[in-house]
Amino acid sequence: MKLSYSRVDQFERCPYKYRLRYVDGLKPLFNCDAGNALALGSAVHDGIERGTAAGVASYTARYPVLTDLMVNEIMKMEAVLPRVRGMIPEGEFEVEIDHPDFVGYIDLLAEVGDGVYDMYDFKYSKNRESYEKSPQLSIYKYFFELTHPGCRVRNLRYLLVPKTMIRQKKTEDLCGFRQRLRETLAGMEPELVPVEYDPESVVRFMLSAKRMLEATEYPKNPTKLCAWCDYQGYCEKGTMIDMALPKNERVGIESAPYMKGWIYGAPFSGKTTFLDAAPDPINLNTDGNTKYVTMQRVLIRDEVTQNGRITQRRFAWEALKDCIADLEKGSDYSTVIVDLVEDTREMCRLCMYDKLGIQHESDSGFGKGWDMIKTEYLSTMRRLLALDYNIFLVSHEDISKDVTKANSDKITKIMPNIQESLANKLAGMVDFVARVIVKDDGSRVLSFKANEVTFGGGRLSISATEIPLEWGELVRVYDEARNAAENGGRKAAPSKRQTRNAKAACEPAGDPEQPEREPDDRPSPAAEANQGDPAEKPAGRPRRARAAEADDEPEGDEAAQGAAGAEEKPARRSRRTRAAV
Fold first, then answer.
1. Residues 38, 62: Cα–Cα separation, whole Å
2. Fewer CB within 10 Å, N or C, the chain?
3. pTM, rounded to two decimals
């Protein structure tokens, strides 16, 4: 094994990180942050060697999409690189030091006489103090002269490319920030930092290398820089968080043993009463319709308090997010029901209107308001549906839209009462989407049918078209679909979740004599008739580097950004939502 400065330096800083990177060979994912130290460092080196345009191209090539923050970084490079290139002499870039026991790369070696050279190392940093104490160039000088008899290094210099970390203020628009950034960059100049050759640092390097090669234990060295370490998740939790690839083995569906479903139907069709039979349920309720169920409930609504003349409002959306935060900490509930999900969408909009100081999405610039609200809503719903509980979304159905078939016949489209683009996103987060239908004879069924006029879908393929509206029946068809997906239809041993759900299916939810809803709320015969197969009913009413191994590790503020060794990984393919158009 050849030594390198970065390898030995990493061992001295944190033996455990050295072990993960060099002994175990764990490779972290490429960090797509605009301030990624590896991407910026490589781009600056390329810009100094081959010109500003080459440096910018090197930086942008690492990212699939450019953001405003990345454009800010490009502005910084375009401002300082031309000045840097004007400070360096002619010479040879990326000179390899190839010793049988050591490898390194000199950023610039400039010949000043017959066999006499000046050695330069480029750093994208403002931390002069750190590099004045760095032994890197002394070690490079020693090994260069060792491998090039008759050659001598006269001067050792670090070229510090100035870096600014100013950020956009909340009261500042992007145009104003970039004008301030240009003014800041105009006053920043590159700096040449000379350092003296230190033979003792070479001896210390050799001793460190000896300890590294003989090490059998690699203790952790927690510091304030751990927050920027690529291996922080693995170090703290012992799991392959943020690592490039997991172990090559099949993962059973049992690894996600909780049901995630979306149930919709007409008002008072029995959706909430049906879910009252789920194991240990809690209802995050938005419409107050929990009178005839026994499950625990939390009313999600705005809370207004009066403090003297000051009225303070806590938005319902904030209350919902607080409930999710509590559930994340763990609870003795097994099932979480969000009833109604379309109300949570409106709660999100109103909360974001207040936060952004707008009255409508269009007030926040072209597309920006819509995107911010949609991102806030979907990210929170993903957070909810990722919890280790049975999660059920409940919606009213919308039958106000028509679909025109090829023969010009119009058929009423049936889907949850929420924007279709959001419905498609939510359907991709759950195992199944089902509709509650009230038959002409008053019986209720849960339909998994999905076609051009009836919204459905989900991640599991449930073979049954309809089942009675009973919890035990849902558990049965869900487990059949799970078994089929896991082992081709062969019967699998029941999981803990199956046992718990089956037990709940055998137990009554509250008083069996209690009515399902108030008699006055029963749908009219005409409304019940409308719950049938949409294909049989008449048309309704009108109604989306230096990469492999760098010869140096960033120090100081560069180390804080997690410097070298990252690898890029291909973009993941997104899951398509199975839903009706």
1. 10
2. N
3. 0.47
